[in-house]
Amino acid sequence: MNDSLNLMLLSGEYAKIHAAAMVTLVASSLGQPVNIFVSMEALPAFHKDSSERNAIGKGPIGRIIAETASPDYLGLFKEAKDMGEVHLYACSLVIDLKHWDLNQLVPIFDDMMGIAGFLGKVSGGTSLTF
Amino acid sequence: MADAKVVDARGSFCPGPLMELIKGIRQEPVGTVLEVWSSDRGSAKDIPEWVARAGHEVVGNVEEDGIFKVQVKKMK
């Protein structure tokens, strides 16, 4: 859809992932479809194993957000999915490199795919990278 | 300020008050006025922006002792 919002989550920085979750929630609440490709250093933030999730970087603000924000970014993404048309896709490259399966990630992903697959899904709209 | 159903989001950080408002709006019938109480200073501007985009109406917006009270009428 041309009015969709397309996010690329690449950074393993907690604050950026949280910001992406807030953007997703507000866009979803306004009826805007959101497509999210999670790759590179961001994907471990979505692992079921908390030791993987906790390994992502936190700057001064990220630390405060992690300690105080409720819900956290996973909760925000879940709320956004419940509220509207939000699709998350896990990067197959990182999954392969880490020898993971999709079911080792938190159950908010619609599918796993490569960048070509994601770009094929999002031929229009606004794109942001975090 | 009109009589309203209070959504007490004091102590919640951005976007918590907005999330609480959205949940409230989804649950209530058209015509309901909700009043969000927020200690988050961004809410007084963020909530009216969201309300305008979502097609509802802000019917009140005041600050009392550091608490922002935004009244929103569900329009659709």
Q: Which features does this protein show?
A:
heterodimer; A: 130 residues; 6 helices; 41% helix; B: 76 residues; alpha+beta; 4 strands; 32% helix
Question: Strand count, sense and closure of the main sheet of chain B?
Answer: 4 strands, mixed
Task: Summarize the amount of helix of chain B as a percent range.
Answer: 25-40%
* Percentage of residues in DSSP E strands of chain B: 25-35%
Briefly note the structural class of the backbone of chain B.
alpha+beta
Low-confidence runs of chain A: none
What proportion strand of chain A? 15-25%
Over the alpha carbons, how many angstroms does the gyration radius of chain A reach?
14 Å
Global Rg of chain B: 11 Å
Query: What's the helix count of chain A?
Result: 6
Greatest interface by residues involved? A-B, 11 and 11 residues
Beginning-to-end CA distance, first to last residue of chain B: 21 Å
**Mean pLDDT reading of chain B:** 93
Helix proportion of chain A = 40-55%
Helix count of chain B equals 2
- The number of strands of chain A is 5
Shape of chain A: globular
